[in-house]
Amino acid sequence: MLTEVHVPEDVPAAVGLIASGATILGGGTSLMPALNDYGSPPTELVSLRRTGLSGITVTGSTATTGSTATIGATTTLSQIEHDPRLEILNSVVRSIASVPVRNLATVGGNLFVRQPYGDLAVALVALNARALPADGSGPAELPLERPALVTAVTFELPAPGVFKYVKAARRRWNSASLVTVAATIVELDGLVSGARVALGGVSDHIVRAAAVEEALLGRPLTDETVAAAARAGLGELSPADDAYASAWYRTRVFPVHLRRALLGR
């Protein structure tokens, strides 16, 4: 069966093709291997590379607290990696795949890739990012429940030290997550006054760890507090066995990686 690839010049044209049943093609790093694995791939794809959805803007002249970053959906992970205004995301994008993959993989595609992949999306959930849908329905909270054409993601850059991130994987390059922890932790007078924690690799979807957040709030960020938060969060995990790790192992090491993300040790 032949596959036809459409390359529209603008977003409305892409929206029309998608409405007619065509499948969105971003960087193709997830979709194309999947198509090659099955005998009946979609007959129509919509490439977004000419729709003008690539680019990064940050309000203000420097990436300071209170600035807002907006990243176009077809912006590649490599573009993020090499933009000094988004240094906060360096550890995230450099934990994903390898340089050749990051040269192709896009922000929009990362929002919809299946777990245990999609580490950038985990970080964006922790950063309280919003997706901007092409249908004009207004900013939508991540993670999105179903695939859609997204034009950009936007989020407020946190103060230095607020964003935390750790990804545990079997190897450095091209490895899916065993456990990914991304968090924004705000402290006031020695106590946690704000917490937003997202997890990857521990379910078939990104987990917003509400029980972990609740266990942290109002308490000092210590080994004891984080250990209690990890115990509270165990009920939010629903990991699966795969080629990278067993469900038992992911559950067993989750507290370790939560501690490493939040305390740096």
Automatic annotation (TrEMBL):
Boundaries of every FAD-binding PCMH-type domain copy: 1-160
Highest taxon above the source species: Bacteria
SMART domains to which the protein is assigned, alphabetical: CO_deh_flav_C
UniProt keyword list: FAD, Flavoprotein, Oxidoreductase
InterPro entries, alphabetized: CO_DH_flav_C, CO_DH_flav_C_dom_sf, Diverse_Substr_Oxidored, FAD-bd_PCMH, FAD-bd_PCMH-like_sf, FAD-bd_PCMH_sub1, FAD-bd_PCMH_sub2, Mopterin_DH_FAD-bd
Keyword Flavoprotein: yes
PANTHER family: XANTHINE DEHYDROGENASE SUBUNIT C-RELATED (PTHR42659)
Protein name in UniProt: FAD binding domain-containing protein
Annotated source species: Paractinoplanes hotanensis
Lineage, highest ranks first: Bacteria, Bacillati, Actinomycetota, Actinomycetes, Micromonosporales
